[in-house]
Amino acid sequence: MLINCAVYQDGKKLADIRKEEIHDYLSRPGCFVWVALKDATPDELAEMQREFGLHELAVEDARHGHERPKLEEYGDSLFAVVHTVEAAGEELKVGEVNIFVGPNYVLSVRNRTEQGFTNVRQRTEREPHLLRHGAGFVLYALIDTVVDRYFPVLEAFEDELERLEERIFASTPARENIEALYGLKQKLMTLRHASGPLQETAGKLYGGRVPELCAGSQEYFRDVYDHLVRINQSIDSLREMLTTAISVNLSLITVQENETVKRLAAYAALVAVPTMVAGVYGMNFNYMPELHWKWGYPFALGLMVGIDTYLFFRFRRAKWL
Amino acid sequence: MLINCAVYQDGKKLADIRKEEIHDYLSRPGCFVWVALKDATPDELAEMQREFGLHELAVEDARHGHERPKLEEYGDSLFAVVHTVEAAGEELKVGEVNIFVGPNYVLSVRNRTEQGFTNVRQRTEREPHLLRHGAGFVLYALIDTVVDRYFPVLEAFEDELERLEERIFASTPARENIEALYGLKQKLMTLRHASGPLQETAGKLYGGRVPELCAGSQEYFRDVYDHLVRINQSIDSLREMLTTAISVNLSLITVQENETVKRLAAYAALVAVPTMVAGVYGMNFNYMPELHWKWGYPFALGLMVGIDTYLFFRFRRAKWL
Amino acid sequence: MLINCAVYQDGKKLADIRKEEIHDYLSRPGCFVWVALKDATPDELAEMQREFGLHELAVEDARHGHERPKLEEYGDSLFAVVHTVEAAGEELKVGEVNIFVGPNYVLSVRNRTEQGFTNVRQRTEREPHLLRHGAGFVLYALIDTVVDRYFPVLEAFEDELERLEERIFASTPARENIEALYGLKQKLMTLRHASGPLQETAGKLYGGRVPELCAGSQEYFRDVYDHLVRINQSIDSLREMLTTAISVNLSLITVQENETVKRLAAYAALVAVPTMVAGVYGMNFNYMPELHWKWGYPFALGLMVGIDTYLFFRFRRAKWL
Amino acid sequence: MLINCAVYQDGKKLADIRKEEIHDYLSRPGCFVWVALKDATPDELAEMQREFGLHELAVEDARHGHERPKLEEYGDSLFAVVHTVEAAGEELKVGEVNIFVGPNYVLSVRNRTEQGFTNVRQRTEREPHLLRHGAGFVLYALIDTVVDRYFPVLEAFEDELERLEERIFASTPARENIEALYGLKQKLMTLRHASGPLQETAGKLYGGRVPELCAGSQEYFRDVYDHLVRINQSIDSLREMLTTAISVNLSLITVQENETVKRLAAYAALVAVPTMVAGVYGMNFNYMPELHWKWGYPFALGLMVGIDTYLFFRFRRAKWL
Amino acid sequence: MLINCAVYQDGKKLADIRKEEIHDYLSRPGCFVWVALKDATPDELAEMQREFGLHELAVEDARHGHERPKLEEYGDSLFAVVHTVEAAGEELKVGEVNIFVGPNYVLSVRNRTEQGFTNVRQRTEREPHLLRHGAGFVLYALIDTVVDRYFPVLEAFEDELERLEERIFASTPARENIEALYGLKQKLMTLRHASGPLQETAGKLYGGRVPELCAGSQEYFRDVYDHLVRINQSIDSLREMLTTAISVNLSLITVQENETVKRLAAYAALVAVPTMVAGVYGMNFNYMPELHWKWGYPFALGLMVGIDTYLFFRFRRAKWL
């Protein structure tokens, strides 16, 4: 579905145009066309391929989707794949944005994403001195927006880990904690699948040999790169802390088991000892003086209660109960 | 066994030929011969070695089999070993394809594989503009096909892990889960043995210094490389998740042990307390008023049942039962 | 908030100046202005941006804060972000220092830090032969001070690990140990987040291609780099020892569980055996000679005590009690 | 001890010679002398040092032994240390081969090895067209033979792991499994100590800057390198699988513990319940109607047996027994 | 404290000199002065700094101590820090040697070490043809000696691990084993702190760009480097084996727990069953024929003993006892 199609010159928007007019503007010097598609059909892709002369392999990747984040050069044009990651309740929703950039065009195709990029267009149109850098700057603005949206996701993970840490040490049901830790790990891996390869990609766009198209926006791409480094280092820290949390959790479960066993044993003792005493006075010897005492029975009961009271406080003191 | 033997010129098939004719066509400029063998005997290999002038070491590798995936240059010809991985029920079946490529010939020898490469031949013949790139493009088409067949295997692993995750948290018998996790790990390592070294190999075929033969198909080899990067990153994620799953599983087993102990202890209490009460009324004191009450016995039984009922609901509430 | 603003020439302080005078001195050759801000407001930053002609992206980073430690070149000026780490009781407090350096100015902005950098200013003013290197040397002095403050933090960690190790092996409550080990790990990761990226940064300031500004202070930056290498290696060692400590702790908990079970079993035996004996003499057979013995009852009690005494010493010897 | 001493020219053996004659042949152009020593004494080494002009440090390494596998260039001559690994029953026997190679000589000294290298000599003599490459080819042949002998050792490890995996899941005594897994790990590390550094070494002998001596045999050294890569990757896989196997084994032990506890609890219940019933009918109430029934006693016994039978089948169904 | 001060020329010792004479000899061409200090005071260091013109930063490092092993170039002079590791009973003692080397001097300052370097001086004086290489060779000799002293420490670790392995599998008290494994790990990390960075350092002294001073002794530094590689690989192997040993130990403790539980359960059964039988014959039914048998009591006792004997042998056979 076509979302937007406009022509820009000298950092300013000339006009919204129809698909059919693209061709006319492509040949005008100093102009570039910016087309945004959403969940494009194969037909739409084929049309754009003809319009902009896109490379067969790039279009095929966009058609099939499920590519890893990457950046490829085809002559003087670029093809970038980036993944969007959005929180959808407890789940993560991974979308894909395919960006084709040439000297005089930008074509972005987003699939399976909730949030669009209208704010990117607005932001770039508000800064004509930057947009003047051309199509390369639009590429930056798109990637930057995707990366910026990773931060809240990552922060939600950090919050969740913090919450889980508290729960682990607060002896909530262990089973749920484990499940939650594992679920967090899964989501973390999903985010990493998006942000890890993108770091490599961004690294190719500043310093060293940079594609012609992005040469003017290098400092901006370095900024994106820095953000991705920060994200990926935070992910790695989170992974390490998660692994530690899982093994610490196992230790705590074992400690708890130990405590359970002690508690049970204490209670068992409180029952076993009176049973033994009762057993003794249940013996059938002819000569058992206590049996004939008037206060024998209360004495026996008292003995039982007395021993149990003593044991109870000893166990208490030893923190078994 | 000879599967196929044909001559191509200018991206089009000239003719199927007999082995004996190979020699004639090798000297014709702009032509290349494409021979496919299956489970070749040493004699067949020797014949091909004479025909195409293959390097001794390459032929020896093909004869012995069980080489790791690799790519070797011998002068202006290439020798590639790739592994096929096919799911055969619960097991994985690893085959081997040896590919000899020269300016005017392609010889592929596949061993221990179920699926053949006839579809590769058909596909390449349908795209004469690509086949025009010559023998290097055939090498690409063969490797690409092998790599594409890794994907369903990998997806089957991902599905299996997902199924196992559900089973782990759904308290199915732990022993089976462990065995299944271990089995999945083994299969994962098998796939990695095939795909890991192949990534290195593919990396040598685009960018930087590329063998003459593949120079025209670089963008295609980059595509294969990207696929392998994706596969290997997925394998690494799977490995990490498997390791986590194994340790999470251990935690769950320990939790379950804890629960078992509690449950058992609760039942033990339900038996031990009446036993104690019975012991008390089994004592032989002369003066035990309860013994002489008319309702002493029902009272004692009632006491037992009462205490047990109380305990039962307490244990229930504490989720021990 | 403006903390300090002074002009230096030839390694000596010329004068403390007002913000408004900065402009006058910037154009004087051989001079540089050193301004220190604390928790700067956006307005103050904007003012400085105008004054020194700072790059938009750098100022934006300083405004938002929460950047990772890094060093960026903008033309002939540098922008550095370093993190301060201070112990605040049991917690770590992470602050941020943004340093803008140009040929004729140094601007440091510190956020969320307790300790200031007045001692840096004093130290550098005491060594005019070094300060003569110019703004680059001030950059060194600031980073060096931040790094030097990591050492006591790290040493506190090492002491804490040592204390924890003693506690682990001295069977203090396991739960607290685990929590303390986990907490130490968290703090370690926090320090690493500050010191890890800073090592990379410092590495760019000596040897190889060095920004013009720091060329004269290379040997000093190598010194900082060496300190950071030492810190990061110590952190890695600590991490490894912590991981080992956690798993060793789990082993010890399991050992303790084993000992608890044995001890409980020993006590259970001391109760169960007399109960059995009492059970035997509680049987109602007509012909049980012991029952009619005069010393039957004491004999039975003696038997119980005797067996228990024997068991007690056997358990003792086997270290079960 | 001198094993062999022969002169080669143009790929063919000229003659077996005496030690004393070495000197004469060294000066003949196009000739090289191949000497094989076994467990050489310091005197023999000193003699060879004089004869061939070996470097002091190399000879010292050979004298002391216990060097790690390595390759060193001394001017136009090479000194290689490779380790042989042989299975000696359950143990591994690690030997050492020191190889000195110059333009006109090869001196191999093997220590603590069972198998010799006579087959290497025979093999190379059968292939004069290869031996014509000179001393470098002999170096290849020796290293290749050592590496080829790693394969059966490695395969024995793989078989042993497979056997252990079966045993782990077949609930043989856990203690033995653990000991066997640990032993396998130890042997694996021993092999790795031999093969790991040798890979680096072999990597220096093909591609890039190659010592003059080995320039003609590059393709052969690449072959050795490939074998070592394969070996080391298999070792790494084995290590990973071993680590997994150890942790899986721990899980299985815990599962088994769980099962043991359940089984024991079931048996305990089968004893405790009749004891409780007996306790009830052992109470001394005056009015207990059952006691006076004619069939009271069989009824009580029947009750016990009945409850136990019921419990037994319930436990069976729940797989506790 | 000054240990030694001598002048060397042409590989031979000219004379022992007084500190005051150093200056005279420094200007004599072809000479170099070798000074050895021990636990130098700041004053002594300051004196040497003046004498040899040492760099401020290097001297400061020597004064403070606790630097990590490193090598720094200051113009044409070198500053090296190496750590000595000596076994002091169960503990490790880490000392530090600071070596300043210039074209015409060597100054070594050792702190907190037991063993001195007199044997280095003797050894080098015995080999004038090597000492002729100048101050660089003395640097080699000092580092080589320090490294050689790591070997016995490392071997002691390997022996200790072997001893611990035996103890682990020989069921000595688990707690001690764990403590010993942890202690070994700590010592290993200490050694690694010394040997790890030194490897990097040594690597800078041969091949590639080598400081002028060491150019003549490259082959010797390569030898040191090889030793350090060997040491560090052994340390890594030991670490890996230690980690494995710790986890294997945990498995064994769990196995032992399992065995303990079984043994206890068996003993419990031996007590519980007679208690049940006694309970049955302690019931008060009017009609219990056994009670009136003459041999009822022996029969009951026999029953108890019989069942216990049967159980005992069954448990024995099942290896529970």
Instruction: Point out poorly predicted stretches of chain A.
Output: none
* Main sheet overview of chain A: 7 strands, mixed
Q: Widest sheet of chain A: strand order?
A: 2-1-3-7-6-5-4
Roughly how much helix do the residues of chain A carry, as a percent range? 55-70%
Backbone shape of chain A:
rod-shaped
Strand percentage of chain A, roughly? 15-25%
Query: Could you tell me which chain pair has the largest interface and how many residues each side has?
Result: A-B, 56 and 43 residues
Q: What order do the SSEs of chain A take from the amino end to the carboxyl end, as H and E?
A: EEHEHHEEEEHHHHHHHH
Count of alpha/pi helices of chain A:
11
Structural class of chain A: alpha+beta
Q: What is the C-alpha radius of gyration of chain A, as a whole number of Å? A: 35 Å
| Multimerization status | homopentamer
Cα-to-Cα separation, first versus last residue of chain A: 68 Å
Integer average pLDDT of chain A: 88
DSSP summary, beta strand count of chain A: 7
